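Morning, I've got a small favour to ask if you have a moment. Here's the protein in full, and shout if anything looks odd to you:
***
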Amino acid sequence: MIVRAFKWLLIGCLLPLAFVCSVLVSAIGDIPAVENHSSIDPESVAQAKSIAKRTLRQYANYNAYVILGINDKELNNLINLASHAIPRLRGKASIDEAGINYVFSWKLPTNPVGKYITAEGQIPKSFQGLDLGSFSLGFLTIPSTLINWTAENLLNIALGDNQGSVFMQSIRTVTTYQNLAQIHAQPPTDLKARIAKLGQRFSSFSGESDLFASNELTKHYYQFLSQQGKRLFSQRPVSLVSFLNPLFTETQRLSGDNPRAHNQAAILALGVYLGSSHFEKIIGPVSGSEKANGQTYFVTLAGRRDLRLHFIFSAVFKILSDNGISLAAGEIKELLDSYGGSGFSFADLAADKAGILFADMATQNDLQARRLQRLFSRSLEERHLFPAIADLPEGITKTQFEQRYQHINSKAYKAMERQIQRRIQGLLLYSQG
């Protein structure tokens, strides 16, 4: 009797597991839904920025009924930018009379089954609110009721205060025709208060999060930098390395068995002190009453304030995210500059790449973390930290960029990128010797 009951229990457990495995296997293959990412150029980045601004401006028009429109070219442009920032993701979308059709593939870690898992579905047009529709994972179709319920509850959990429900219910209709989709929405009357409350929630979350090194460590290194500033700001300009040498000498003194955590906290403190106080919204308050003053303006890298900011921002982004996202952010910023700003600069890109590699060396493993501390404790010079940039092209306009490099996946651009990478990796700080 016991054996029979055990047998049925085993069957009851194994059958659902076998079903799930068969679904996953049917959705996995060696060919992605989209073969290659499209190239990113300055125009596509500027278009994405314009879409985001347009959408936020319209939706934030409090108490007004708004119509948000997007065509399939704009939609695919946004997906392509996401794919560039998240290299494992590939996708595409199309808009027709029935709705918004999409297919996404995610590159899997090495396994014996296949390289990509693919999901596809449709967000149908609707005159009764937002319907996310069903989607298919292999031979299994997940119904729209489950998709809508899951999405709403995940948003409520993430945003709190039923914000997910409020957002989804604010969308009244979704219409599509030819290659255009329009979302008709009625933002809540208390939208401004809800946005403020949402900001408080994220600030609270970041302050309590254990995702980063202890805030007490970051506070200590911020205070240390502040003390160094009082000593160094009598000089003008001040090299960034003048802060890095004592900072990582201090991490060496205090880090004990955990050099990576101390290096990480030091970089986050550096980001707040010599980068932007806005980083405190992510990592929590660390500056207290010791706010950096306008004298940080005179801190430079290679004699330039903008390169110091590129270096520090990229290092912090590396800590806050992964290498792919931070690099994409640097490239996108440069492309935006070429669209009517300061122009695309390979010197700025060198600072982005050096900042990413600096943060990687500081936190990759205990051996590298201690090596970095040891090198800074011996008083490095800028030439050990940052490559020669005098011959790197700068101020490249959109037209010039397209004529010389076409896009960031072209051979000409990749050649410049490799040259910069070689220069950085040949420096004392980043060499493996």
Summary: DSSP finds 16 helices and eleven strands in the chain. Confidence is low (pLDDT under 50) at residues 204-213. The CA atoms of residues 237 and 298 lie 5 Å apart. The first strand starts at residue 28 and ends at 29.
